[in-house]
Design brief:
Length: 68
Amino acid sequence: MKSKRKAAESDLTDLHFGLGAAVRNAFGLHEPGSILFSSCGTSYPNDAFGVISLELWRKLQDGSPTIS
């Protein structure tokens, strides 16, 4: 299994269904008024996971997220 730290940005789409569903459910991205969802700046919970996974990937790559 490839380490996610060494994964290419394009590999993040592989996480969408499994990990994405778990994150959306665990953190209530479908819930009205979700602070995490609204902070992602997207219209859909699925897209919010895309923002979250990309920021996590960037943090693992160089330690500097782009969202402050």
